[in-house]
Design brief:
Length: 249
């Protein structure tokens, strides 16, 4: 297990890199350091305390506006935001929104009934505000979907699994399965265990991330009577699961 002194020395080196404009390298190394420390068993509260007590904290507190800048920019904040936006977790978040939007558009064009559960991200929300789609229902939680009293060809829950334990996710999938029409499909995404940048989200962004193993997701689908298919996006941090209702024999 890494000692406090060892971590402080690493933070010292990273601070020097940031101050000498080595932003990309410093942010990548910090993300890896946080991931490694958590994997080694260091308590998140202790790791957060060490980082916040170090001068490096003033840089990791800098935040962007939720978009991915195409160029590093000229200010320290802009250059750090650019470096952070290139982490795999940040790329995964952007790809999640992009894929969610493409699935909605495709399903809508084919005349399918869609239910979007949970916040899909700002980009999707802005698009739907400008171009509301027919037969698309947006709800915050599964209970609201159940009150609609109908079946759906496609249920999308792009981000809900981030905050669910396995038991909670299993209950959610079971309830969603009951709302699927014949051959209907539930689509959800979840962060892969031990992905690069998980420590950053937990320590720097104060987000609790529930990660789900591929085999656990397959078991959850099977328990709900759904077939299971999965793919990982280009960021390598997010796994997308397609859980489809089996046709009656």
């Amino acid at each position: 297990m890494q000692s406090d002194t060892h971590l402080q020395q690493i933070f010292d080196q990273l601070l020097l890199q940031v101050e000498t404009a080595g932003f990309d390298e410093a942010i990548l190394l910090l993300a890896g350091t946080l991931d490694g420390a958590l994997a080694a068993g260091i308590d998140t509260a202790r790791l957060n305390r060490l980082l916040q007590a170090h001068p490096l904290a003033r840089f990791v507190k800098l935040r962007g506006n939720g978009t991915a800048p195409e160029e590093p920019g000229s200010t320290t904040a802009d250059r750090l935001h650019y470096a952070v936006s290139r982490l795999s977790t940040e790329r995964g978040q952007r790809l999640r929104e992009k894929l969610t939007l493409s699935v909605i558009e495709e399903a809508s064009k084919s005349g399918k009934a869609i239910c979007l559960i949970g916040s899909p991200g700002r980009k999707v929300e802005d698009f739907l505000a400008k171009e509301p789609l027919a037969d698309l229902h947006c709800v915050a939680e599964i209970a609201a979907a159940e009150t609609l009293g109908r079946k759906f060809d496609r249920i999308l829950a792009p981000a809900l699994a981030d905050a669910m334990t396995r038991d909670e996710l299993q209950k959610f999938v079971g309830r969603a399965a009951a709302l699927l029409a014949a051959s209907g499909c539930l689509t959800l995404s979840s962060f892969a265990p031990n992905h690069l940048g998980m420590g950053w989200k937990i320590i720097c962004e104060k987000q609790t991330v529930q990660c789900h193993r591929d085999d656990a997701l397959a078991q959850i689908a099977a328990a709900a009577g759904l077939s299971f298919a999965q793919f990982h996006d280009a960021s390598g941090s997010l796994a997308w699961s397609e859980m489809q209702k089996r046709q009656a024999a």
